[in-house]
Amino acid sequence: MESQALQSNPSDGTVFDNRPIGVFDSGYGGLTVARALQRRLPEESIVYFGDSARCPYGPRDQAEVDRFVQQICSWLTERDVKMIVIACNTATAAGLVHAQQVFEVPVVGVVEPGARAAAHTTRNRRVGVIATKGTVDSNAYADAIRHIDAGITVFSTATPRFVEIAEMGLRMSEGPIEDFMAEATKVYIRPEFEDIARQYLEPLRRCEIDTLVLGCTHYPLLKALIGGVVGRPVTLVSSADETARDVDHILTRRGAHAEPGHVPTASFFTTGADTEEFRRFGGRVLSRPMDVVEHVDLPAV
Ligand code: DGL
Description:
Elements (H helix, E strand, L loop, with lengths): L6 E2 L6 E2 L4 E5 L5 H10 L5 E5 L11 H17 L4 E4 L2 H14 L4 E2 L2 H11 L4 E6 L1 H6 L1 H9 L4 E6 L2 H12 L8 E2 L4 E2 L2 H16 L4 E4 L8 H8 L4 E3 L2 H15 L11 E5 L4 H12 L6 E3 L6
Parallel strand pairs: 3-4, 3-5, 4-13, 5-6, 7-8, 7-11, 11-12, 13-14
Antiparallel strand pairs: 1-2, 9-10
Helix pairs in contact: 1-10, 2-3, 4-6, 4-10, 8-9
The site of D-glutamic acid (DGL) has 16 residues, from helix 3.
């Protein structure tokens, strides 16, 4: 593939880079970050990789997820991406540092942006974090939040079933049950999902948090459910917008934005067998249609 890196505009000497940004997650969750990127940086092309065949990452061993991160970053760099966004908290916690050490392009994760959003939002300096088991066990959020403000108390809880509920809710939100759909989240919420959410979130409510980090990129899909259970005084924060801002700043500093007027492309790949399903559900998360989704086989690591 011919590289389009760092071309300069002869009229004013500005530098631009039309290569795509690589974005990946274990499935649909990272599309919440891709959506924020497309909104903030509408001229940037995106290559999105959803590792649906190996979803969920949350219960897996950190070393295994780190190997997935290395493998997917290699796959993306072969597609000549100019930077990589690890749009998965579990993968960020397990593999961001290693990926930054190995790959030449900038690699950003979603934990630090989410931590920053929380630290800047809380007033009573009591922050809750809900995430997968892998992310909570890594302590990545608590470390990142306290790195910004050591006076913040962080209460973390693993809420692994939320990934399953988000993916299941996407599948269920068509047809006659449409009435129950939480419009803002595009995910169907069953009454028993509320019971599960209450069990997970009640202990955090008792800790008198005023800010709750949705520390998994799937969870913004459940914002209506989670917000309904934790109640009004708690502000929900997620990484997507803050990560898109970081990407914007990095591209600015490196002179690596796409050329003004560049018509972006968006390509989607999944390791899952059902590309049509990924296209349908993914388009709902992205809030715009996906034209084509291609299947990718990655060797076992
Ligand atoms: N979306 C991923 C995250 O942000 C987790 C989903 C999974 O467990 O695979 O952590």
